[in-house]
């Protein structure tokens, strides 16, 4: 197998799509008088609420709480505004490929051998993702114990700022019609609702290709009551010692570091209602709980961390919805599109598509370097030589010159049932933790993937999709292509190309919908309060048992608003007593 040829495909499927036509320049950033670099923060600060993480949940949560209390937001990344790599759809891949120290994307490789990335930017994952916007199902809302009426109002609050109906051009329409043709019924048109059948969902990209992130929701904030500090890395949450006057630990402050390495202390003002809220995401929240002394005692002690609460469930239940796909070269030009259409099947696999992909030189070099680094770290000889990199450059240039065109059709497994765990590698909060998702450990997930891949094959062979197919390229050739590309670091097996079960296992990728680590009922209660301590909550995707809907971002933003309103209501009731 040609290593340099293989990495070309990684460019597309692993970390994003490089757009082949131009869009508008990034719109003018909103003038937030309350957003500052952490280097300008006082040495000591006092607030009613301290929110760790200005991401997809943290921004709507902070904006809501600021309507009735003082709020401090500590975000370890920078601002998305004024950064064309983030704000323009044409640069979608570039934002994920940026490996500079202050980039919005922090790459990691899971213990499963799958490439992945986490956000470090105001707005969180909504500043990096493919933009699909859709609600959780009614059953999901019921199981979560949320009040449906308030959920709908919270979704609407989010949508007035960040959600749009996408344009439907030829490729997306062909896949939509193909899904209907092969029986993913009924066709439900454009809707945010999660219902069986084929539909067009929303997007956080507007008609000009401009991204709208969760950071836009800070426009709702009361400027006098909120401070947002960027490049503010929280090192630990501070707890009181047990005993009088408190029978168990209570959170009372945090220590954070600015970009110059100077430490600052933020404390809660004196009130029984004031709290620290973790919204650092599915990796960041369990990681910071452990760094602060809440987690499995043996694991914390191995890292010389003083144990505040022995909580073995912190870091457990880590799950990532597995994605598998086919790349389909097209004999005719295709439009640039990210995720717009989804087939929601009754066997619980979701089929989606994106098109207008072009290979990016910078991506190939990034993954060649990353792959070489991984091999060296594992003590294996590097398979990537300077000569191979030179040949990769030549190959990529020739492909770009030939303007290879096409798209991908992918499937994502609901849930999933399979899960793993997160552990600390170091005590540095800037370092990625170790995480294993255990893709397809449970047979139910694998069965759904196989059914999803069969549906993709049927769509590719459908009459509706026929004009985007090379007549002399059978589906088996598309499968063989995927098998022979190192889309991950997992081993290949002899039967990979012949068995869809083995294909799913060997070519699995992330769709960046990982969740868990601080799950409701295990680490937090139904009010998202951390078990075993006081004045600390976790409100983000780390609390999810399953991923909501076909894309979680709408629900994560909704949750920030929903819980912000609930907390303010509790504060109001307590204040009247």
TrEMBL record:
Positions that bind FAD: 56-57, 121, 234, 512-513, 541, 552-553
Protein name per UniProt: Glucose-methanol-choline oxidoreductase N-terminal domain-containing protein
Entries under Gene3D superfamilies matching the protein: 3.30.410.40, FAD/NAD(P)-binding domain
Cofactor (UniProt): FAD
Keyword Disulfide bond belongs to the record: yes
A molecular function GO annotation: flavin adenine dinucleotide binding
Transmembrane segments: none
Disulfide bonds: 449-504
Domain Glucose-methanol-choline oxidoreductase N-terminal: 281-295
UniProt keyword terms in alphabetical order: Disulfide bond, FAD, Flavoprotein, Signal
